[in-house]
Design goal:
Layout lengths: L2 E3 L1 H8 L3 H8 L3 H8 L8 H11 L3 H4 E3 L1
Antiparallel strand pairs: 1-2
Length: 66
């Protein structure tokens, strides 16, 4: 079972850059970059909640279990 964060796909679909998401959320650009990478190995639930609220998406849209 693999857990995948679809942030890069969602940002592309919404036309939002990683830098813009960092600005909107107050997260560091490196944090957003990490969440957009294929190698996400850990993430805080508060961070996921903030990203979901900012992008107006549900957690089920952001996290995929393969």
């Amino acid at each position: 079972m693999a857990i995948r964060v679809r942030l890069r796909e969602i940002l592309d679909k919404k036309g939002i850059s990683q830098r813009e998401l960092a600005r909107l959320t107050g997260l560091r650009a490196s944090t957003v970059n990490h969440l957009c990478s294929e190698k996400v190995d850990r993430v805080y639930l508060d961070t996921l909640e903030l990203v979901c609220k900012t992008l107006n998406i549900r957690i089920e849209e952001l996290i995929v279990i393969d």
